[in-house]
Amino acid sequence: MSDAPTQSFQIAGRAAPDHGLVLADSAARRLARLSEAEGRPLLLRVAVDGGGCSGFQYRFELIEAPAADDVIVRCDGQAAAVDPVSLPLLQGSEIAFVDELVGARFVVGNPNAASSCGCGVSFSI
After folding, report:
1. CB-hemisphere CA count at 13 Å for 103?
2. Which of these, 2, 85, 108, 124, could form a disulfide with 54 (CB 3.0-4.6 Å)?
3. Taking 60 as the threshold, does the pLDDT of residue 11 lie above it?
4. Please, are residues 43 and 107 in contact by the beta-carbon 8 Å criterion?
5. Architecture category of domain 7-110 in CATH
6. Going along 1-125, which residue ranges are E strands?
7. Where are the domains of the chain?
8. What pTM was estimated for this model as a whole?
């Protein structure tokens, strides 16, 4: 039996094409802890907005329910929601949580990014 995280994708309750998005087990563990601390289930919304020093920037929010057209990425009972506008820019990405000396935060490992800024929040295609 494998210890690998269980991954699944859906759009508002129906099966979604595989966009290669991965919610890492580090992000799932952090979401579970945040949900437990809040006393309610939380999802991580991951979006891409225009701006930042490199042209695009990631936006992370904790939400209670996804929008009807969000793509939902699940791992070990936890979930992240991505809107359809951000999805093409995040295709093939891994959403993780890192706890480093400079701080703890959600991060996106994005193979589509040609460059990114030093803080890892903004990127260009």
Report:
1. 5
2. 124
3. no
4. no
5. Sandwich (2.60)
6. 7-11, 14-15, 22-23, 43-50, 56-63, 71-75, 78-82, 94-100, 103-109, 115-116, 122-124
7. 7-110
8. 0.77
